[in-house]
């Protein structure tokens, strides 16, 4: 199998970012991940006049220095596939050709200027490949522009772009250090007028997913304000009411005070209000109650177009399944073992559902599968406490397509696949009623399945479940001696009884 690397250089209006993606081609268990990143708050569009004014001297020099640095980095690290892409500020600059020529002279890189349609497409690919968005709108807001893409059955049907980025709206409407209600009113009216060109942004269009650094900052601030444990914002749903509260807080603060709000990066503090009001206006116009947040951005959209270039459009058939398998592959999981644990766990879960022992929710079954596939990735750190290492890796690597609540449940299932009484612990604020019982059930089923596969040889092909005399009896189907899996599974009787209120018996 071949290991490949791609450097995507995103020359945005607010920031420049170089992201290195590494991936392995050649099998069902290929993996990909970000392996390096450089971020610089260049503000190349600072002071640029509306409607295509020139890039100013100081921002242009900052931009050229940063591109030169990025080029040196790629040469020093041996990355040959480098894709520098410019967005709205450079695209609309009257001195664009001069900038591109100077960038090439200083860095040797040929910068590609994305059209509005290309920029919107990469944002759409990032959103749909990392969220649950099937029908609705993908929103991508940067420093200079905002793109909205209408999505139907995961495919882009139409897209529009407006000069409504965080830097642009701040410089035009929010220059006063003390923002007044009339300033916000004027900005909101401007956004409404601009959005009138997209009548499809209306109640009933579907769900909303959001891409961009401003959205990630707003989500982080909302999570922290609500007292939620934060292991990243991937999959978090930013509720309309929470965003309204944030806008009010940001409007009452000075730019310096905004930089100190937990979750808001200092370099975004002076422009975050403009972005928040634009997003708020989109949610109002479309009747969206929430916005699903993703860590992915334009860079990931470009990468997905390369990784999935044999698909049209380049979309994972199932985002949740792809993210679980990708994480498992990154840590060299014993796939024969984990696949079989998943098979045994799901079969046992199904049999218990058929007996009326639990609600048989489809989501619960999928979370159990994910935990079974990932329960042993912590062995990559060390065998001792590998159940805890697995949880750490799940939480910190993230699982695109899953919400923070779901990711936490998967992590806790992996945490308790060996021992201990399952508890939601610090993740309680993320949970719903009944999640403590869900966790105990799934941890018990996973633990029994793991023990049935204790020899790691797939010798227990199947489990037949019966319910004599109010207990649960597992009859093991195998062609070899099953003394070890029978002994190991019977030791999990206590957690099984805790989860299902029934004694467990294992027979050959």
What do these coordinates show?
The chain is of the alpha/beta class and 508 residues long. The protein folds into three domains: 2-114, Nucleotidyltransferase, domain 5 (2-Layer Sandwich), CATH 3.30.420.40; 117-300, Nucleotidyltransferase, domain 5 (2-Layer Sandwich); 320-507, Hypothetical protein af1432. It contains 19 helices and 14 strands. The protein has helices at 57-76, 88-92, 96-107, 116-128, 166-173, 181-195, 213-225, 240-252, 255-258, 272-286, 298-307, 319-330, 335-354, 362-374, 386-397, 404-415, 435-452, 483-490, 493-500; strands spanning 2-11, 16-25, 32-40, 82-86, 112-113, 136-141, 146-152, 155-162, 207-211, 237-239, 290-293, 462-466, 472-477, 504-507. The strands form three sheets. The protein has a six-stranded mixed beta sheet with strand order 8-7-6-9-11-10, sandwiched between helices. Strands 3-2-1-4-5 form a five-stranded mixed beta sheet. Helix 16 crosses helix 17. The longest helix has 20 residues, at 57-76. The radius of gyration is 25 Å and the shape is elongated. The mean pLDDT is 96.
């Amino acid at each position: 199998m071949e290991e490949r690397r791609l450097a995507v250089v995103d020359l945005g209006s607010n920031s420049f970012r170089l992201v290195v993606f590494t991936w392995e081609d050649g099998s069902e268990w290929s993996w990909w991940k970000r392996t390096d990143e450089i971020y610089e708050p260049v503000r190349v569009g600072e002071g640029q006049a509306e409607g295509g004014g020139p890039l100013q001297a100081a921002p242009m020099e900052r931009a050229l220095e940063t591109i030169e640095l990025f080029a040196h980095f790629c040469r020093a690290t041996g990355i040959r596939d480098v894709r520098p892409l410019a967005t709205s500020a450079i695209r609309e600059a009257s001195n664009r050709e001069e900038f591109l020529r100077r960038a090439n002279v200083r860095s040797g890189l040929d910068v590609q200027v994305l059209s509005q349609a290309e920029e919107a497409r990469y944002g759409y690919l990032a959103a749909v490949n990392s969220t649950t968005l099937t029908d609705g709108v993908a929103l991508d807001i940067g420093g200079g522009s905002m793109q909205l893409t209408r999505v139907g059955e995961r495919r882009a049907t139409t897209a529009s772009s407006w000069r409504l980025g965080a830097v642009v709206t701040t410089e035009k409407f929010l220059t006063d250090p003390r923002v007044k209600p009339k300033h916000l009113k004027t900005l909101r009216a401007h956004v409404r007028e601009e959005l009138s060109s997209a009548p499809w942004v209306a109640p009933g269009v579907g769900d909303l997913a959001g891409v961009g650094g401003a959205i990630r900052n707003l989500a982080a601030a909302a999570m922290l304000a609500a007292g939620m444990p934060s292991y990243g914002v991937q999959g978090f749903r930013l509720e309309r009411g929470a965003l309204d509260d944030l806008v009010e807080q940001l409007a009452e603060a000075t730019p310096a005070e905004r930089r100190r709000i937990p979750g808001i990066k200092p370099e975004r503090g002076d422009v975050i209000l403009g972005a928040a009001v634009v997003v708020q206006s989109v949610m109002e116009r479309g009747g969206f109650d929430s916005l699903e947040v993703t860590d992915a951005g334009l860079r990931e959209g470009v990468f997905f177009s390369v990784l999935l270039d044999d698909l049209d459009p380049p979309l994972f058939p199932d985002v949740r399944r792809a993210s679980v398998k990708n994480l498992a592959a990154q840590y060299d999981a014993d796939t024969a073992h984990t696949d079989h644990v998943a098979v045994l766990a799901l079969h046992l879960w199904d049999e218990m559902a058929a007996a009326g022992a639990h609600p048989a929710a489809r989501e619960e079954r999928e979370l159990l599968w994910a935990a079974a596939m990932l329960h042993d990735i912590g062995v990559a750190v060390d065998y001792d406490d590998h159940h805890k290492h697995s949880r750490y890796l799940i939480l910190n690597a993230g699982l695109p397509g899953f919400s923070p609540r779901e990711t936490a449940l998967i992590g806790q299932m992996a945490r308790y696949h060996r021992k201990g009484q399952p508890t939601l612990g610090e993740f309680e604020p993320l949970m719903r009623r009944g999640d403590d019982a869900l966790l105990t059930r799934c941890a018990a089923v996973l633990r029994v399945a793991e023990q049935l596969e204790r020899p790691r040889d797939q010798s227990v092909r199947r489990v037949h479940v019966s319910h004599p005399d109010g207990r649960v009896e597992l009859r093991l189907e195998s062609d070899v001696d099953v003394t070890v899996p029978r002994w190991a599974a019977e030791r999990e009787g206590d957690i099984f009884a805790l989860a299902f209120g029934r004694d467990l018996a294992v027979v050959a």
